[in-house]
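ugh ok so i messed up the first submission bc i forgot one of the chains. this is the corrected input, ALL of the components this time, i swear. 1021 residues overall. if the numbers dont match what u have on ur side tell me asap before i send this to the collaborators (the ones from the other lab, u know who)
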Amino acid sequence: MVNLNSRLWSWGRSEWVLVSSRYMKTLSKLAFWAVVAASGLLAQAAPLAWQDSLEPLPPSEWNRDRAAHLLERAGFGGTPAELAQLTAMSPKQAVHSLVDYHATKNPQPPFEDSGAFDPGLDPFAPSRPAATDLAKASGEALGVKSKPAGNRKLQQVADRYLYWKRVTKLETERLAYWWANRMLTTKHPLQEKMTLFWHGHFATGDEKVQDYRKMLKQNELLREKATGNFRDLLIAVSQDPAMLAYLDAGMNLKGAPNENFAREIMELFTMGVGNYTEADIREAARAFTGWNYKEMAFVVNPQQHDDGIKTVLGKSGTFDGVQVIDIILAQAVTSEYIADKIYRGFVREGMSPAMRMKLGKLLRDKQYEIAPFLETVFESRDFYSDASVGTHIKSPVELTISTYRKLGLTDVPGIPDFNALTESMGQKLFNPPNVAGWTSGRSWITPGLLLVRGNFVYDTVFPPVDFIAPDRVAEDRFGIVSVAEKLAMGLDVTTATKPDNKEITSMSMQNDRNEDFNTRLASYHAWRKAIEKVKAIPRMPARIDLSQMVRDAGCVNAQQAVDHLLMRFLSVPVDALTRRKIGALFEYDLGTSDLKHADSYMEDALRNVLHVILSLPAYQLG
Amino acid sequence: MDQPPTIASRRDLLKALGALGVSSGLPTSSTLAATGGDKRILVVVELSGANDGLNTLVPYTDDAYYRLRPNIGLRADKVRKIDDRHGFNPGMLGFERLYKDGKMAIVHGCGYPQQSLSHFQSMSYWHTAVPNGGERFGWLGRVADAIDPQLTPNFLVNIDERQSLAVQSEHHVPVVFDDPERFARKGLLQSRLLLDSPAVTDGANVSRKYLDKVAASAREASQLVRAAWDNYKTPVDYGLRSLDLNKVAAMINAGLSSQLFYVSFRHNAFDTHVQQNEQHGRLLSYASDAITGFMKDMDRIGRAKDVTMLVFSEFGRRVAENTSLGTDHGTANHMYVIGKPVKGGHYGEPPSLTNLDADGNLKFTTDFRRVYASVIEGWLQHDSKVLLGGDFKSFSCFG
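and heres the new structure output, hopefully the right one now
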């Protein structure tokens, strides 16, 4: 006996299968019938025995829902056309097409650098006082000479310091847009998904690194090695300038080792706490002494490298960093830690210890090759078990990108601002909260954040009409606008930069009662010069055409349109009552249930309905 | 496929939704009723970034302090002396008054064995009250589960961008929001009934159940919090940074059933490695003004007797100044227990400034969990042994 819920749900799906046959003209008749046949199984639960099994899913169990699950996890979800393609394959082929992506062409534009850097800025000063003190002592800093006479001799040096801070922040935001557009349009969704995963794993933030060029380089590295060998990736990341800067590797010197770098490698990148001793960290730190970067390249400074004998995890020798990494990789716990983390990111949480060990062994058996590991995982019965399907809480970036993808967008909207959106939901690209990266799963969701997620959809379908581009208009709280206005009215610098009591002065400006320069003035100068150099982010709202979407799906009445949207966007079924209520709302907005009549004016009502659907708690699941 | 009747008017829509079993998700008068009464309230304030305790409460008679801090040490004639040994940073008029009014317990030398010098790690130890452990739930989350097994809605509140580990709870859904004005769901009028209707929770999907629970909390709490905020007007000055304590005051003022609050001076603000004095003084005056303002506000609305505050930072800073006129990461620090119910004074032993550890850091004299225990037992009146996983001796710092 099928309950009402699943009857209505599968009605919606078989309806979809029929109407979406328009997408499938190019596919064989056989494939089409396979889809139709599969739709009969949709509401059924997976056998309990699938849980914890890494045996491949039998081809007979392949259907549209499972293809949708695969695309959701190995990518950012997709359109009905993409799903139809995957559904027409065997599960093995479908997984292979996503994992072995190098065979697929994927033309993507490179990041378009604004060209705001010049060589004088490298090495960049660790702080504003460091820059101005250096200029005061030597007559020059950051490629700018101090004035030999007159007031505020170091003003241009202070300007220069804040200019680069502003540039790298703005350019990093453009970088995030570039990446987001890649995630949206890529033909290699797993590559971008894995890059995002590694970005969280090897957390590095521009607020510390202060150089978007290094962030870009790291991002390209993570992408290039996304599904390659973990050893290659780990070594490359350990020698990556952004990571070396982020973890202060330059402070790890022979005779004065800094344990930070070695600690993060063991604790966060490979083994996890509790699997090594403090002595192991101290000894490993010695092996990494002398590792540093110069400009954009990794260097080892032999004078600063300690080449004595170290004992790490029971092994002794005159190890260097790479040898220590190999010792770490030889530990079974490392494979378990990495396999577990990948599994939690792509499949589910709450594995049994036995499952965890099984996954670790799988990764070891594959010699730390990520692609074949993922292939086994994505084909496995556990991946399609009830414990896995529709239980993953999407990260803010996953939520945003998959929403855009399912909307069929080809550009990440400029309104609302992608960086502001994802930051307000708790995940700003290129700026993870700390070395441990983002904590995922349930911690993405709070009452406040759940509302923010719903409001993201509202602002996407009904873009704000009072949008101000944050990469063009200076934030009021820095007092930049008022300084600019006062100077333009001919006030002297001291008067123009005197804080009105209401403003909250930013942290970087706080110690600056120095006659050599004025930081509030520098802040204004820096903003002006930075926006002159850094290219503007295009500011178009999403170009959504839901009317065409439901037309293409062949929906003729209001409820069918609602059912189509439910199926297209949600990974878990919605109860019959909710479904009908949304149908009633849509019909009310249209004044009819007849879509043919409403065809010329249904867009706004469709958008409203979509907002309601994507505000369901269930939409957070993928 | 059965066709529903045509829905032409808003009345028809309401009827259709009603016929389909929708009830309004808006709070009824009973859920809106003030249920807070005069229950005991605890407000925890985190000073993130490792506040420099020695320049907060200055040991102005200790030569070692001036020897180790020749440039950034605060001169004895500048500090706000509270006795013949200690004086507050010049910016902390409010703290001086709170202490002199007998409303502040200063607990000295708080720390834990094998002190981590990482902000992230150490803060997680303070959040969980389990140093060097991997506890999943926060100490305040565990307290909520223990003292409120009936799961009172909105019992535990955290005002921040992301949820703090401190309030992570097994059974409670903490109300977490940042800006009360934005703690609101956008949506057109005709959609409100759907957006605000209760979620249907069934099936075995635990993630979905969790989301439904949070959604229910968001729905109810957002309306209450916004109403509380809209109805809150205060003549009290909280200074330039309120530390979100005015939002806490609004919720207490509205008589919500919230008893545990967690706020933070955010973004590692106190991480003063470079040229710290002016900046640090400013941060401290913000904190002092906000806390003093909050206490005044509680007096004003007649709830001062019901509110205790706990102030902490994840560790202190190195005793010796660094070469950039700042301070590096250190160890032991003060904690402050503040409020009308508090028996003011000094608790614990100030650590020696000459007998330091190998890194030049203070040796802690008080396990910070003793202060948690003091608040749990002395104020919230619950046994602390199970909650804290050990027998941490309370200070009797409540009147």
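quick check: The radius of gyration of chain B is 24 Å. that seems consistent at least. The domain at 37-388 of chain B is CATH 3.40.720 (Alkaline Phosphatase, subunit A).
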